[in-house]
Fold these 3 entries.
Entry 1:
Amino acid sequence: MTAVRPRFTLLALVACLGLAGPLAAQQDVVRLGITYRAGARPGIIVLAAAGLDSVRKIVERDLDYSDRFEVAVVADSVAPLSGELNLGLWRQYGLAWAVELRPVIGGVEARLHDLGGDRVALQVQRGVDPAGSGPQRMGIHRLSDEIVTAVTGDPGIAATRVLFVNGDAIWMIDSDGANLTRVSRGTGKAMSPAWAPDGSRIAFMELRDYAGPIILQNLVTGTRQTVPGTSGGGNALTPTFSPDGREMLFAPSTEGGTDISRVDIQRMCCVARLTVGGKLADNLNPAYSPDGRRVAFESTRSGRNQIYVMDADGANQRALVPFDGASTGPSFAPVWSPDGQRIAFHRDIADGRQIMVFDFGTGRATALTSLGRNEDPSWAPDSRHLIFRSTRERGEQLWILDLESARIRQLTNMNGAARMPAWSPRLTGPVS
Amino acid sequence: MSRLAAFAALALLVAACGKKEEPAITPTPVQTDRPMVNQDSIDAANAERARLAAEQAARDAAAAAEAARAELVNELAATVHFDYDQYAIRQVDEALLARKAAIMRANPNLRIRVVGHADERGSDEYNLALGMRRAASAKDYLARLGVEAGRIETASLGEEVPVDPASNESAWAANRRAEFDVVAGGQTLVRPTGS
């Protein structure tokens, strides 16, 4: 998982380098074994007491993957943190923040030093396993997210997971690539995973014996239930939970057509049809707005797949992402950003397939990728990272893109294609 | 001595005196039309030949019927193909579907399943919907030719089961298809009349 952009690397501890004040922007300066590029992102370093190096590495990587910092990578030859922290040294390197990790009984204490303001901005203790393994890893990720929030005011995304399809099963992986686990346990082909808003359950379609009902699976207990209205034959496509977790939208696909329906997932009853394309149009891939009042979806009613929107009760169905008859490529799989500002989707363009973002502010859609075939976008909870499936490099794997820095990193390395990713909400509860 | 004994002695004497000549004894041949024992075996051999011939004829008839049934099953199973992002039945496949309809009309116990497939373009989920359109389109065509809708099931596997996993035009064309499976009633099949 290599980062594409340059990093601030310390090769040796040298005092008094005279780096006070920012260097000229856009200019790489090599001085005494240090490569530093001044930019808009604050520099940060993560230091840990002896015995906490694996925790330190997880936090350092989380902060790097947040794409909000220039993370100073400390070489192995640099002594681990012991005794008092030498803040003046890090200030001289032009860093803005220093994270100090020390062991306490039962876990780790983290202090976030504001080097410019000469204060401790955050001091928290967490019961994490110093070896940094197992379910305690999520606790370390929550620590990293608190650091991101203290610096930027925005929540971090380290304490999240991604569901995806590989082979016939649904798999799960931590956002930093650890803890790859197979989640679905049935026979047949499992597809189109979706998260419940509280992160405790997932839904997916299970295609077996020529029919595809939707399965609800509790992630903690493993219990499975079949969603009402999905087991009468045909395929129940693209399930998605409402933001309050009480309802589910899906697209039953039968010989009468493919249309979007709603079901009460709390009472497990009461299926209602929202679209009536019937024999004339397919409607699928519903995506709620974060306030639950509107639903974006994919429809062929104009002759080719394009992105539409409707009220959550099915009223006011209208085109959303502008298209121009036959000249705009078919557009698929809309997903609404958690902050409500954008819709990501994929579109066939020339010989390829690209991730597009429609911005409600500008009313325009732009391409985020240009190489190869890219599809199935899903938003991270921070509304600035997108995961998607791509043929760049070899095979078909999942890649994560930061919309602000344009940095792209590879998340999966599976045998066979990794597809249909779904990024979790922030995971706050106990998840095994 | 009695007269018999005297006569016997006289016969012996005569026999003894004439012993230099062999008496000519000629067995009288038994004249019949057929030997009784050979007729049974000939009858049995003929009956056996007839039985073997009948068995062979029965096997030949069964093989011919099975070949005819297999041919009908093949015609039922023949795949139809579709243009990119389309689900209309193409003209080149009309005769194939007409033949399937005729076989189904001639065999009222026959039930089939039509399974629609798509090539890998588009999105995985849309391709499941497109495959279902293709299955429904083939079913509608057969229903318009007089096959009861209740005897035709439909399903879609989208792009999940390609016949050719390559990413080129000929693979995509092969994957855009509807397949037909016999679900019930295929053990004995009769040819449609006039065929």
Entry 2:
Amino acid sequence: MSAAIDFTYSYAFPSNVQQSVKGKPQLALATCNADHAQPHFFDGKVRQPRMLGEMLYVLSDVVRTHFFLPRPAILDPVVTSNEEMLRLEGFSGCCGVYARVDLPASVFEGECKGRGTTNVDFNNDMRAALLRLRDEEDVEFAVGADEVVLSRDGAKTIEKKVKLPLRWIKGFSEVQAYQPRLEPRMEVTAAEGLRFVRGLPKGSRPKMPSYAIPSGRSIRLTQRNQKGAVPILGTHRVKVIEPLLLRAKGLRVWSDDESGASAWEIVYPEGTFFLMISPEVFRGFSGEGQLLRTLATPPPEATIAKVRAALKWQSQVDLEHLARDIGASGSEVEAALGILGTRGLAGYDAINEHYFHRELPFDLAKVEEMQPRLGNARKLIEAGKVRQVGGASDLAKFEVDGTGTVHLVTLSEDGDSCTCPWFSKYLGQRGACKHVLAATLLMQDEKTGSEDL
Amino acid sequence: MTADDLEELVLSIKDAMELAKAFSGLDDKQRAKLSSSAQKLHRQLSEGKPNVSASDRLKEFLSCRTGEVWSQWNSRENRNACLAIFAVGPLSAVKKWQVRVWHDDTPALECVIRDRRPEWMDDWIAHELEQQGTSIEFPTLHGWVQDRVCGKPESDGYYRLFAHHMMRTGFYGKKEEYVPPLSEQLLKASELIPDIDGLFRVETNAFNTNAWLTKGAPAHYETWPQALVRLSRAGHLERAHLLRLALDGLRLDIKQNQLSGYHKFYRAMEPTAAELIDHQPDYIELLCHPVSHVAKFAIDMLAKVEKAKALQSEPFLREVGTVFASEAKGNAIAALKLLQRIVAPTKKAPDPAALAVIIEALRHTDPEVQANAIGMLEPHSKHLSAEQFAALEDMVVLVSASNRPALESLLPNGVGAATSPSPSLTASGLSDGTVDYKPSSFSDGCRGVLDEADAITPIASVDELIDTVFHAIEVVDSPDELERIIDAISRLADQRPADFDQRVAPLLHRLNNGQVGSNGLGAGRIGLGLAVLDLVATWASGTLYRTPEQFSEYSTRQDAFVPMAAHVREISTRVVAREAKPLLAAPTHRGGWIDPVVWVRRIAKMERNSSLERSIDVRLAMLRLAPDNRTEALQLASDLGGDIGRLARFALGGIDRPQKSDRSNYPAWITAARCREPGADWSSEFASLALDDAWPDSLFPAVHEWSSSHKAGQYEQMRWKHPELKIRVRTDGRVDDQEKRGLLATALGKLSGRTITRWEELPTAALCRRTESRHYWPMDLNTTWLAQWLAYLWPQKLDSAHMKAAAKLAQRMDEDSSNWTPNYGFLHALFQRGRPWGEPGHLVLALSLVGKDADVRGLAIDALIEGIENRIFDPVIFAIVMTRLCEGEWVKYNRLGENLLQVAQVSPAHARAIDAALQAWLPDFDLTQRNGHHVLQVLVETQAISGAPISPSTRTVLTSLTGKTKAASLAKQVLG
């Protein structure tokens, strides 16, 4: 299977700050989705141009950066629009940093022209112009443009041919799996947050994990893990938010103890910037580890399909309401949304604890094929390498043939275990190994088979 | 030409041009017919293997070839085959990386190409120019373009080739070639002049400023900027166009070195006043540039425009604020100077927009920038609007502590005072910093170290042991885990459940195949690490593992671990025999500590073991006895009989003493003495044992000496100082070091009937061995958990562990964190609860704070923060250490300043402690030296946060600083 797919961004014009027909500065973002349509989502004014400019600038920093190799990335962010919210999401070239700008309707004066998700052009000229937006000015804002405008301006189409790594598409999809598990850990003023971020190592960076811990009213960095500490690997990844803290209201720090992922929410009076970093610099977001169990034992496909059909670009999916509508349980709907999230068909807003509908504008069919650990587990079963060797209903033991040895898997309510190097090293923190998955699947298959009988 | 003819030519012709000419005159059809044969021939020659259908000639040729296949890659025949593919092959074949034309064959390739004029030429060139490196040379390509063999490429690679070729110096490669000045080359090939535009669009070396690019250049050499300036002055190039190109180039997202080259070129063109004014909008736009030197260029140009009284203040004021959002201090200062000229006191009220921008400057991270901005606002405070006062109030929390009072004084009615926050206080009972910081006295050495939170729960079952070992094979979380494993293996050696072999089979498989984690048990492949690995393998397999160690000049074991390794090997021997035995040396608490009461109880249970007092186990255990609970333990020990009872009581401070009859068990008794009083001179007490001993920390306490120096290096213009830390460990000088004794002294000692002590038997002496690292590379300490484990051997007295750490840290002062030689494990010893750091500990701290290793530095900051909270940090000792370190003239004060500032900002009490250290240090510190002001900057902040009084000696030092230096200005600030 190829590691990347060829994709052409085809924009009707380059995103930029230009003079509108009324002679005012206008931030115009060009759009393009998977089938090269160029939707028009928004037209109006932005109430706080400087804040918007700075947030989009930092978002562009994230998408154009590969945080552990000196390699430029030219992968544009996506925007999801509905009447309540405009969200821009970006993913770094290294697949380890996810950024999202949430702009509620109150940030704008104007009209939502359409709902949906599309790519949006970020280019160098636009970046430079973003920093020059000022609150004192009357700045217009457009996401896409209508056909009349395009034909009047005779804009030249901008094409960007890129190779979208499958790993990038997969990571962008699966980063949603981490978000429901995030817990808020600390909240400080923007000034204290700025002091903390400015104190992060600049030139020479630690290779070992650093941790952010509360220190009175502030946060400080430590190299020693302790209760309540938020791990940071790759402090330079957090440093990208520094410009935003100059004018923000506060900083909220989130983390997921199990995976080690952390999130940094810059709070404004209206709108937020949400930056999430993967557990390690060179490791992206592979939600597979977190969702493997769910993927291994998913809710019925019919439920997933019903949930999918019920998604209509809501900025907040009401779980209970949806469950009632389709006649499924809340947990089934949540599991279905989790799976749809890994397929790039839903996002999760940890701040408001809701899923939102958005569909990543890429060919997602290939992504569905990429579940290597689960695939390997199935291969083990098909090759007859998994055997149950005993145990009670709450404690099942299996032998799984490895390379040159036989691994022992124990499935129990207190926790699963395996003797393979992966499990021994991570003790389940990075999800189940293929051996545990294979044993789980075998047990599930046998249970299903006996129920059928 | 047939396929056979082709093969004959390729295999027999020795002259590439002759081969090239052989293909001339073939038409496209003939070439196409030969294409497949040429490709097959090339493949067979590259792989060194004839096809089944290969000719006898080819088979024989290949069978006669000697050497490896890869060594034939540039043989004449292989090169001929490549040329043949160019002569007859398709685009897909010439694009393969294996088909490269050797440099010497370029004339032949040219001949082939010119003759054939393949239709794929443009595509092939485009492909070649996209690669990292190409064999096409620019003159060749240029010639083809001129002769219409191919179209003019537009790819970035073309411009890179163009730039690189024209700027060659003749130093690399063709030294004999005369290279005319670049301007001359361009005038001779004037058709290339339009290509100059591409140099301002594409990343090339043309405008780079690296020294190696002009290495060995002749006197007449011209760089690209020099050539362009010259041609412009002579009227051959349009000046305005070049300036425009340079400015447009600065907007590109390209490497910083090239951006620097663009604005240097722009300056070299010496723009006129009119041009400066004309370009003003560009400069203003560039103020927002994320690269600081580009923003600096913009500020400098605008300063010139302002001098010409043509600055458009409105757009300038609109954009200049972004300069203060970046960290570059120089840019911020320069921008403020420019703003100063705009708001200079005049009869008119200052532009409110200018005041608003100056307020923005308060967001800058540097205190000097903030101070300048406050200074500029002061004379105009009456012109500030309510909105601007509100903005100033918001800034109070952003500015440094030293600037806060000045800023608050600008606010109306002391509004700021109420909102001015102080740095947070930490826990651990620290005061608010108004009381002087006083470190704890450790004169009685009896601060308790045992805490229930640190108690270790022993591994209870074989199941738990198996799981713990599986994890440790992949990653060792801490030495505490290893201690638990060693203890459990010894205690549970006789337990082997029915499924044991099956359960540990994967473990043994990994051990035997070397498939272990890089920071797991397998990381230690020498010395103690290897002993532990062998122990685990012995336990898992039931057979004794003794992996031979491989020492070399560059890889040896750490002597400090020798007794511990012997202990582990002893356990292995018992495990094979399935003899379970609890260990005296198993820690009861994290950090390697043993509760003395528990220790005595353990001895009581094992008392019947007749040789217990001679075991390495008891020696290692004694060094781990905590200072806590010794009185109670001594009372319990009164019931212990035999020599072990005497030994235990002596170690715990009882009245028992070593006797002459204890001579043969001298290792245990000397170790017990060190347990009783770690730093004492025990030579008199042991006189009756007639021991010949002068090992440091054996009968005589160790004296650790060190000095700081540097080794200067130079290569061309570059000079550097390599830090050196010379360490020597000796006894107190009354006796010769045992190490240095010659054969005669040793023989005399034996003849006199004295027992010569062996360091391998004495854990405390082993710790002092070979602390200096010169010519000695103990590989164990490259493993983090082994470096941490060093502090577990004798937690009572960490001096030796600290000195070994210091030796390793000093080796990598100016290097980043390393996975291969991670040093952060050494700082583990600084976090041992309740142990004084002494000079060695403060030396480790100081080295860590001035080093480049970010992992070490981060831990050092943590250690200092906790050290202050626990009153272990001693400002006076720290000052002495810093003074001596600075004698080496290599200390980077900016690093130290940054790190001390971080600690000072934790709380007023921390600021107070740092302040005390600085004031103790300053009288011996040369503040006039380069970058010495970084230390003063910290003092400015600690004074602002803590309000500590200035000592007379500090005042004297600060008053002596005069002039306009940074140090003098900061001194004035401190003195008020």
Entry 3:
Amino acid sequence: MNIHEYQGKEILKHYGVRIQEGIVAESPEKAVEAAKKIMAETNSKFVVVKSQIHAGGRGKGKIRGTEQRGVQLAKSVDEVRDITKNIIGNVLVTHQTGPEGKKVNKVLVAQDVYYPGASEPKEYYIGILLDRARACNVIMASTEGGMDIEEVAEKSPEKIVKEWVDPAIGLQPFQVRNLAFALGLKGDAFKEMVKFISALYRAYVETDSSMFEINPVLKTSDDKILAVDAKVNLDDNALYRHPDLQNLRDITEEDPLEVEATANDLNYVKLDGNVGCMVNGAGLAMATMDIIKLSGGEPANFLDVGGGANAKTVEAGFRIILKDPNVKAILINIFGGIVRGDRVATGVVEAYKAIGDIKVPIIVRLQGTNAEEGARIIDESGLKVFSAVQLKDAAEKVKQVLAGQA
Amino acid sequence: MSVLVNKNSKVIVQGFTGSEGTFHAQQMIEYGTNVVGGVTPGKGGQSHLDRPVFNTVKEAVEQAGADVSIIFVPPAFASDAIMEAADAGIKVIICITEGIPTKDMMVAKEYISGKDVRLIGPNCPGVMTAEECKVGIMPGFIFKKGTIGIVSKSGTLTYEAVDQLSKVGLGQTTAIGIGGDPIIGTTTKEAVELLMNDPETEAIVMIGEIGGGMEAEAARWVKADGNRKPVVGFIAGQTAPKGRRMGHAGAIIGGADDTAAAKMRIMAECGIHVVESPALIGETMLKALGRN
């Protein structure tokens, strides 16, 4: 599960990680109020207004149709009001949102941490994630803060240092020192960084996170180390033991169809294509998307109905797929192991009748237990549904339907 | 021969008396698997499906001689069940449970790493040795005894492959569902290696999906090992977008190496017969064996 920057920072702070402080606001008035408070506390005229959406690249991204950046330094209360007015309620387009962008509902009004002082501020990168090959967590640190880390990994991999954490014994102090020294820090900044990384790792483990990306981590001009941004990803499988973190879910950040699917216990991901699909099993669902592409279409979605495909789940799946106006055909691909083909076929026919007027052609491929019986039920239903038993036949039918021959 | 499980395997079911455990234990018994009992803490001494229920895996090993365990325990307790089985001396642990927190699996994998045990899964359909022994949830009727081994991250896609093989007249030795989670007990490479070293297995189907580097690792091993047997490979998720989890917790494209295209390219370079369409697994295997 993804959460917002401001939520991620609250978690970090709770575990003793120093952060760029801020107040979240949902209107220009609230933003102004927040700015005044922060300006008084920091004794500064500057604050930063940061759009809160679940996507990166906000600093370079622009509000659609304007030159307004997603993250901007405001040098007065009036500027805070103007910038926030430009942002809230509008759509921010970044390299991660794609051209459709994301609507901004909230901004984080944050303290300006790049103030002048005894030394130059310097940005770093720190990430924590699972190293799948080694089956343990890895902490990555780089002097190239503020940069896209994948780009750094490609162009100058020597600038990324890593420490792998033994799952049995946990993170050791020497590993943290290795990282802090590798970043070229000394004195107070070194000690601060050791504290920062130790607390950060503790936060990662105790919240069952699946990814932390703190980019940038800032060394301020007075040698404090703090998180300026926080990308936090939580392990969905572990959310059951963190009821407080479950509340951080922001469904306005999710596709409404995906929210509806989740409510129906369906695993659905909206895509941009023209052929919808409904499949049992995640691997077969991905393979079905691939078949659609090879047949000349583009998958409109990923949809795994799971092990218990019945009339109810099939109907819920139909309704969700049909809400996508791009869908020109639907391919249902069920490999009945435990699920019986005739049952699924009956489910499809019932769901079809319950929904009524389905305008797009439907191809049903049933295989496995009672597959032939299922195909007969489909064929005899009198509905505009094409049945197939072999996956190859299904692909061929998709091709014909898209070519308008069926 | 065959690998991992056969007609001599003495299988116990952890989570025996639960609804999933009961249903699938029954199916396994019907297929002919030697299910010697099950474990449900607190229900020891009872009888279920005409077989003894034990409180601990240790008792099941001592009293029923169990050497294989299949786990249907809910996600919150599954990593504990894995460790208990390993501690009790079970040799092959097959964990079906989906949804185990990554942190728990990290600990369980570390715990079993020094022990003489093989973990298959979690989040997998299990292991099936055709017409001998089913330790999993795969539909038995699609299998036919033969010479093709299968390694797959996915459930229904495995059935698809098996079904296609059976329909073109190619039976199977063992199908190993390794699971779709980011941390699993047996990697693609390890499963392929088991089949490569099995004298009864003549060729291998290897089915992967987006995310992680296991298929590339397996492909490189197949090549380094001298391509001793034909391998047909498919990667699901050629059309999956970046950064979205496609059902399985491990099926997500992070970096460039996670994509289906990257994996398929490496597999082809390593001499694997890569199919673009999952509908062509059976046919391609026939060709790879020179029998079309």
